[in-house]
Design goal:
The complex is a heterotrimer of chains A (319), B (428) and C (197). By secondary structure, chain B is an alpha/beta fold. Helices cover 30% and strands 24% of the residues of chain B. Chain B folds into two domains: 100 residues, Urease, subunit C, domain 1, CATH 2.30.40.10; 308 residues, TIM Barrel (Alpha-Beta Barrel), CATH 3.20.20. In chain B, helix 1 packs across helix 2. Chain B starts with a strand and ends with a strand. Helices cover 27% and strands 27% of the residues of chain C. In chain C, strands 1-7-6-5-3-4 form a six-stranded parallel beta sheet. In chain C, strands 2-9-8 form a three-stranded antiparallel beta sheet. Classes of the chains: A alpha/beta (319), B alpha/beta (428), C alpha/beta (197).
Chain lengths: 319, 428, 197
C-alpha cells in the first residue's frame, strides 16, 4: 500500500489530474509553515532522505533541502561529479548501496532520461525525480503550475506558452503534461531546431514567432537557453536568439493584455529574457521560488508513510 | 564412417527445387543423398521421426555477433554456434567487430577454426572493409577470402567516406563477394538512442531519424550502380529504405537487403519506460515502417531475414537507457518470431519464409547449402510451425539474456538442427 | 469508569446501542456553549491576552461561536486562531498522509498569551498532544487551557480538559459525531455505533 501518489514521483505524465490537484492543494498550507518564526514542523521526524545529485544544481537542491529540513527529516547530500558515462560506480550499485543504508527517500537529479525510474524500480525507498536528462522535472512544473493557479485560479481554458529550448527541456515536458491535464491550453514557441520534431503529438500548438505567442498567451514560461546549445550548432548565436525570440518589454507592450512571466531559472538576462521583464510588474519569478519549497514539502509529505506492516499495530489509535 | 541419417515423414519445403511434399530426407557422408516421397530405410540408418514437422534446407543467419575474439565473457563462438543450432540455424556469418577487429587473414582463420571446433552451426567469418573498421584504409580482402571470409562489412559503423566505399565495392567485385553496409549517418544519429518519434519526444531521449539510414542506402545504391559492385544492406529498418532499394532493384543495381526479426515485429512503443532490452541500432521504428518492411519482404525487395544477434553482459544493459549498449540476442527467438509475425499472420507463405531464411542467404552470400538437392551440403532444419512456447531467456544457449521477447508467447520452434548429416541440436 | 470527574452532567452508557442517540440537540448545544463561554472568561480572569484557538475542522467553528459569545458578553475583541495538527501527528508512518492538510493561522507570537484550545471531541488525547507541540513552536504562552464540547473518555495520554460541555463514557466501538450548522447545516451531538454509516 502506498500513499495517494504511489511510491514515487517520477513525472507528471503518469499522474492523474486529481493527483496533481492534491499536490497543489497540499502545498497551500505548507506555504504558511515557511512564514512562521520557527519554520519547522515535526512531520517527517526520523526519516532519512538522500539528495542524490549527479548534475550540478544549486536552486533545486537548496529548495529540496529546505523542504526536507522544514519537515524535520534528516538529510544527506550526495553530489557525484561528472556524467553518467564516467567510469565511476554504476547507478545500479549506487542504488543497492543506498538501499543497504536503509534510507527512506531519495531525491535524484541525473543527466540520463529515465534514471529516476531506473532507481525507483530497484529500491523500496520513495524516489522523487528532481530532473532526469531531458525527460521530466515534475516538482519544477508543479511549482510553475501552482504559481499560475495562485494568479488564475482554475487553469481550465487558460493559455500558457512555453518559450525556448523545448527539445532539451525536462521542465517543458513536465509543464506540458501537467498543464494539459488541468485543462489549460499549451503552446510552445522557439526556433524549430530547438523543438522536438513530433512536438505537436505532445498536444501543444506551435508558434514560430514570439510576437504571435505573446498575442495569444496569458502566461509565458520562458526556458533557460543553455549556452552549450549554441556551441552544438542548434542556433547561430545568442545575439540572434535574443533578437528573434527574446522576451522584451517592447514586445510585451504590444500585447493586447497583461501576461504573467515565469522563468524556472537560472536566467540568462539579455538572452531569453530582458532584465526589465524579469524584474517587471508581471514577473512572478520569485513567487515561483517561494512556491518551490511548498510544493516540495507537499510532495515529500504525500509520499511519506503508509507502511502496511505498521498500520495494523496502529489501527484504532489514530485520534 | 558415420551412420546414415533418415529424416522420415516430414513435410519437405525446399523453395530451391519448388518442392513441397511429405517425404523423407536421407543424409549420407555429410551430404544429402536423396530427398522426396518415401525413400525406404537403408540398413543401419539413424531415423528421426519428422511426422507433422516442416523439413527445410538449413537456415542461415548472415548477421550475427559472436564477440570472440575479445569479449568471451559475453559470447564465444562455441556458445554462439550452440545458440544458432538451438534456434534452427545450420550456419551463421560472424560480423568482424571483434577485439581485435577481424580485418586480417589470421583473425579470419581463427574465427573459422573456432567455428569448426565448436561443432554446432557452421560459422562463416566476415572480414572488415577497412583496417580496424576505421573507415580509412581498405583491409586485405583477398587474403581474408583465402582464409575463409565470405563477405565484408564494417558493421557497427558506416563507411563514411564515399570514396572508400566506392573502392571497396570495386575491389570486392573482383572476388565476387558482397560488401555489407551498416547504413547510418553518424552526424544525424549522433547521441541518439531510439527512433525519433513522439515516443522519443515524450521520453526525452535523443532520436535517430529514419533519414540517418536512408541517406546511406541511396548513396550506396548509387555507388553500386556506378561500380557494378554488390552492395548488401544490413538490418534495414525504415519504409524509405524499402522504397529506395526497390528503386535500385528496378534499375538493375546489384543490391540485396536484409531485415531483422525484431524490425518486422516490434515498434518503438516497445521501449516503454526505458527498457534497454528494446535498445538496438538501428532502433525499433514506427508501425508504418514495420508494415513496409513486412511488405518489402513479401514482394522480394528485402531478400533476407536475419537476427543481428548481439549479446551483451547483463551489467552493461542494466543501466541508464542512453548509456546502455545497442543490441539484442535473437538466434533462439528468430524462427518463432518469424512464424508468429510473418507466417501465421499471412504476410509470407511458408516457402517464401524458408526462402528468405535459407535459400536466398546461401545464394546472396555464395554459401554452400540452402537446398536439399541430392549431393548438396547435409544441412537441414526441422521445425514445428505450430508449437506454442513462451520465451524464457534463462533457457538460452547463448550467454546473452538481452531479449525484448522474454515472457512473450511465440508460435513456431526448431525441433532438430542437422549440420553435415549430424543432429547438432534436438529439442527436448 | 476510566477516571472520576466533578462534572455535573455525567451520563454513562454501558449497554451497546443499536440506534443513534442524541446527546445534545441544537438548544442544548447552545446552552452548553454559553456556559462554556462564561467558564472561559472565569478561568482566565477576564479576556486580557486571551487567544482562542480552534482545532481543524470543527474545533474552529466551535471556537468562533465561543469567541462571539464572549465578545457579546464582555464587549471586547478576542483574538482567534486556527490550528491544523496534521503535520504534528504521530501516525504518518503507519497510517499515511491525510488527503488534505488544513491551514494553521495563529498570531505571529504567543509569548505571554493565555491560549484556549477548542476541540469538538476529546478521546485519546493524541490530537491535543500534537496541538501542544505545534503551539510551542509559536512561542511561550503564559497558560494553555483545553476546552472541549464532548469528553468521551478513552485517554491514551495524560491529558485533561479544563472545561467540558458534556462528559460521556463511550466504548471503543461507538463514536461521537458533532454536527455544526456552519459545516453540517445543523447543530447536534450524536452517539452512534462505529460501524453505522
Amino acid at each position: 500500500m502506498n500513499g495517494p501518489l504511489g511510491k514515487d514521483l517520477l513525472g507528471l505524465d503518469e499522474l492523474t489530474a486529481d493527483q496533481i490537484r492534491l499536490i497543489l492543494d497540499t502545498a497551500v498550507p505548507f506555504k504558511e509553515v515557511s512564514e512562521r518564526q520557527i519554520k519547522k514542523v515535526p512531520t517527517l521526524r526520523g526519516m532519512t532522505i538522500v539528495n542524490l545529485f549527479f548534475e550540478a544544481s544549486t536552486r533545486t537542491r537548496v529548495s529540496f533541502e529546505f523542504a526536507e529540513k522544514r519537515l524535520s527529516a534528516d538529510t544527506v547530500n550526495v553530489a557525484s561529479s561528472g556524467s553518467s558515462v564516467s567510469k565511476g560506480e554504476t547507478l545500479v550499485d549506487t542504488a543497492r548501496n543506498l538501499e543497504a543504508m536503509r534510507i527512506d527517500m531519495v531525491v535524484i537529479r541525473h543527466p540520463a532520461s529515465g534514471a529516476a525510474r531506473f532507481l525507483a524500480e530497484r529500491i523500496d525507498s520513495n524516489v522523487i525525480n528532481a530532473g532526469d536528462g531531458t525527460h521530466e522535472h515534475p516538482t519544477q512544473a508543479l511549482l510553475d503550475i501552482l504559481t499560475l493557479r495562485d494568479r488564475f485560479g482554475d487553469l481550465a481554458g487558460r493559455r500558457v506558452c512555453i518559450v525556448g529550448d523545448v527539445l532539451h527541456s525536462r521542465v517543458a515536458r513536465s509543464n506540458i503534461h501537467g498543464l494539459r491535464k488541468l485543462g489549460a491550453e499549451v503552446a510552445v514557441c522557439g526556433p524549430r531546431s530547438l523543438l522536438p520534431n513530433a512536438v505537436e503529438e505532445l498536444g501543444v500548438q506551435v508558434f514560430d514567432r514570439i510576437e504571435a505567442a505573446i498575442e495569444w498567451a496569458e502566461a509565458l514560461n520562458i526556458l533557460r537557453l543553455q549556452l552549450e546549445r549554441m556551441q552544438a550548432g542548434y542556433i547561430p548565436s545568442l545575439r540572434e536568439y535574443n533578437r528573434v525570440f527574446g522576451v522584451t518589454s517592447e514586445r510585451l507592450d504590444k500585447a493586447p493584455h497583461d501576461l504573467l512571466i515565469l522563468h524556472p531559472g537560472p536566467m540568462n538576462r539579455g538572452v531569453e529574457i530582458d532584465s526589465d521583464v524579469a524584474d517587471g510588474p508581471h514577473s512572478v519569478i520569485l513567487h515561483q521560488v517561494t512556491n518551490g519549497v511548498a510544493v516540495r514539502m507537499a510532495v515529500l509529505y504525500l509520499l511519506a508513510g503508509g507502511r502496511p506492516d505498521l498500520a495494523d499495530a496502529a489501527k484504532g489509535g489514530a485520534r | 564412417m558415420a551412420r546414415d541419417l533418415l529424416l522420415r515423414g516430414g513435410r519437405i519445403v525446399d523453395p530451391s527445387q519448388n518442392m513441397d511434399v511429405v517425404g523423407d530426407v536421407l543424409l549420407r557422408d555429410g551430404n544429402v543423398e536423396a530427398c522426396g516421397a518415401s525413400l525406404g530405410t537403408p540398413d543401419g540408418a539413424e531415423i528421426v521421426d519428422c511426422a507433422g514437422l516442416i523439413v527445410t534446407p538449413g537456415m542461415i543467419d548472415v548477421h550475427v555477433h559472436m564477440r570472440e575474439p575479445g569479449r568471451e565473457d559475453v559470447e564465444t563462438i562455441k556458445s554462439g554456434a550452440h545458440s544458432a543450432a538451438a534456434g534452427g540455424f545450420t550456419a551463421v556469418c560472424a560480423m568482424p567487430n571483434t577485439r581485435p577487429v577481424t580485418d586480417n587473414q589470421a583473425t579470419v582463420g581463427f574465427v573459422k577454426r573456432q567455428g569448426e571446433a565448436a561443432g554446432f552451426a557452421r560459422v562463416y567469418p566476415y572480414g572488415a572493409i577497412s583496417v580496424g573498421s576505421k573507415g580509412e584504409t581498405l583491409a586485405e580482402m583477398g587474403e581474408m577470402i583465402s582464409a575463409g571470409a565470405v563477405a565484408f562489412s564494417d558493421d557497427g559503423y558506416p563507411v563514411s567516406s564515399s570514396q572508400l566505399m566506392r573502392t571497396a565495392l570495386e575491389y570486392a567485385r573482383t572476388f565476387g563477394v558482397p560488401v555489407a553496409e551498416h547504413c547510418e549517418d553518424m552526424s544525424l544519429a549522433h547521441g541518439g538512442s531510439m527512433n525519433e518519434s513522439a515516443v522519443s519526444a515524450r521520453l526525452g531521449l535523443k532520436g535517430i531519424p529514419n533519414e540517418a539510414e536512408e541517406i546511406y542506402v541511396i548513396r550506396d545504391i548509387l555507388l553500386a550502380k556506378r561500380t557494378g559492385g554488390h552492395i548488401h544492406m544490413c538490418h534495414m529498418s525504415t519504409k524509405g529504405s524499402v522504397e529506395l532499394i526497390r528503386w535500385g532493384k528496378e534499375r538493375g543495381v546489384n543490391v540485396t537487403a536484409e531485415v531483422c526479426s525484431h524490425h518486422i515485429s516490434l515498434t518503438d512503443e516497445r521501449v516503454g519506460q526505458y527498457d534497454t532490452n528494446a535498445k538496438m541500432n538501428p532502433p525499433l521504428r514506427s508501425a508504418e515502417d514495420v508494415e513496409a518492411l513486412q511488405q518489402g519482404l513479401a514482394d522480394g525487395t528485402i531478400d533476407l531475414l536475419v537476427t543481428d544477434h548481439a549479446p551483451h553482459h547483463y551489467d552493461e544493459k542494466e543501466r541508464e537507457f542512453a548509456d546502455a549498449p545497442n543490441g539484442i540476442v535473437g538466434l533462439e527467438t528468430a524462427l518463432g518470431v518469424n512464424c508468429t509475425w510473418l507466417l501465421h499472420r499471412g504476410v509470407m507463405s511458408l516457402s517464401a519464409m524458408v526462402d528468405s531464411m535459407s535459400c536466398k542467404p546461401a545464394k546472396v552470400f555464395g554459401l554452400p547449402g540452402g537446398t536439399l538437392r541430392a549431393g548438396s551440403l547435409g544441412d537441414v532444419t526441422v521445425f514445428d510451425p505450430n508449437r506454442v512456447w513462451t520465451v524464457d531467456p534463462k533457457q538460452f544457449k547463448s550467454k546473452g539474456r538481452n531479449t525484448p521477447y522474454g515472457g512473450v508467447q511465440l508460435t513456431g520452434q526448431a525441433r532438430y538442427t542437422v549440420v553435415g548429416g549430424r543432429v547438432v541440436f534436438a529439442a527436448t | 469508569m476510566f477516571f472520576g470527574t466533578c462534572d455535573p452532567f455525567v451520563v454513562a452508557y454501558i449497554a451497546r446501542m443499536s440506534k443513534p442517540t442524541t446527546l445534545l440537540d441544537a438548544r442544548a448545544m447552545d446552552r452548553t456553549l454559553r456556559r462554556m463561554a462564561d467558564e472561559i472568561v472565569e478561568l482566565n480572569g477576564g479576556t486580557d491576552d486571551l487567544v482562542i484557538v480552534g482545532i481543524e475542522r470543527r474545533g474552529v467553528q466551535l471556537a468562533e461561536r465561543l469567541v462571539r459569545l464572549i465578545e457579546a458578553q464582555e464587549n471586547v475583541i478576542v483574538t482567534r486562531g486556527a490550528l491544523d495538527i496534521t503535520l504534528y501527528r504521530d501516525d504518518l508512518q503507519t497510517v499515511g498522509p491525510r488527503p488534505v492538510v488544513g491551514r494553521t493561522q495563529l498570531p505571529l507570537t504567543l509569548d505571554g498569551k493565555r491560549v484556549v484550545i477548542v476541540d469538538d471531541v476529546l478521546y485519546t488525547g493524541r490530537t491535543i498532544r500534537a496541538a501542544l507541540d505545534e503551539l510551542a513552536d509559536f512561542g511561550r504562552p503564559s497558560r494553555i487551557a483545553l476546552v472541549v464540547l464532548v469528553d468521551r473518555g478513552g485517554r491514551e495520554l495524560p491529558i485533561h480538559a479544563d472545561i467540558v460541555g458534556r462528559t460521556v463514557e463511550v466504548s471503543p466501538d461507538q463514536r461521537v459525531d458533532v454536527f455544526i450548522s456552519e459545516v453540517d447545516e445543523r447543530d447536534a451531538v450524536i452517539l452512534a455505533d462505529r460501524d453505522a454509516a
